[in-house]
């Protein structure tokens, strides 16, 4: 991403930046608080203070550069690039089923990406205020590539992310040139809620992801199938009423958030046609 020519297309140019440079220097997710949960207006609009956490300051700084969030001056699009310790392959996250441009891009990426399995995740069916860094722009998607351990760079993950970004930039260029993208139906995964680990009364984790569930991201999980193995060797089963599709299974960064995995539903989403209005 340091080669500026790779980020240029005939109708626009893009720029790359590190969202949390201090955390990157220390090889940690964040210094004081999760930056990618810091971009709601209620946080961005708070008065500046000397004792404010670094990530709170950084969120406001990025909002001034690439936003302001919700304003006509905000940048048109942002890719939020992540790696995950979970076995998710390439996952394209769209904030809402109401975001037609983002859904078209996600479909374009999936159609053109052949390196590994590729999934489209919609955070919510309805419109809502996202808390991620790309929400300060008019549009944006999150890209998750894994599995990759924390603090480790894997060549195949870097290559897959680069391919996704190149296709994403190509899509924007085609849209800017007036290409028509007809409506379609797509298969996507939609968030239901998340599942915590089993715990002792003092809050300590009392079980781990069951071997039969580990690395089975986006595969069907049926009622009665095992999800945890307790430290005494017994099984905890999924007691839901319908089949779900787990994701972010055993994600290292989510232990502190008390998330063992996300519960997803598989949906068919209808996406309307889009085409840029040319002057």
TrEMBL record:
Please give the InterPro entries that the UniProt record associates with this protein: AspA/AstE_fam, Aspartoacylase, AstE_AspA_cat, Aste_AspA_hybrid_dom
Q: Where is the Succinylglutamate desuccinylase/Aspartoacylase catalytic domain?
A: 9-172
For this chain's record, the cofactor binding note is:
Binds 1 zinc ion per subunit.
User: Which cofactor(s) does the record list?
Assistant: Zn(2+)
Gene source species: Pleurodeles waltl (Iberian ribbed newt)
Q: What keywords appear on the UniProt entry?
A: Cell membrane, Cytoplasm, Hydrolase, Membrane, Metal-binding, Zinc
> Looking at the Swiss-Prot or TrEMBL record, what is one Pfam family this protein matches?
AstE_AspA_cat
EC primary class:
hydrolase
Classify the protein's membrane topology as the record does.
Peripheral membrane protein
**Residues of the AstE/AspA barrel-sandwich hybrid domain:** 185-264
- Show the GO MF annotations: aminoacylase activity; hydrolase activity, acting on ester bonds; metal ion binding
SUPFAM superfamilies, per the entry: Zn-dependent exopeptidases
Positions of the catalytic residues? 144 (proton donor/acceptor)
Question: Know the name of this protein?
Answer: N-acyl-aromatic-L-amino acid amidohydrolase
Q: Which family does it belong to?
A: Belongs to the AspA/AstE family. Aspartoacylase subfamily.
Q: What is the lineage of its organism?
A: Eukaryota, Metazoa, Chordata, Craniata, Vertebrata
Enzyme Commission (EC) number: 3.5.1.114
Report the locations given in the UniProt record: Apical cell membrane; Cytoplasm
Q: Which residues bind Zn(2+)?
A: 82
The chemistry this enzyme catalyses reads: an N-acetyl-L-cysteine-S-conjugate + H2O = an S-substituted L-cysteine + acetate; an N-acyl-aromatic L-alpha-amino acid + H2O = an aromatic L-alpha-amino acid + a carboxylate
List the GO terms this entry assigns under cellular component, sorted alphabetically: apical plasma membrane; cytosol
Q: Which domain of life is it from?
A: Eukaryota
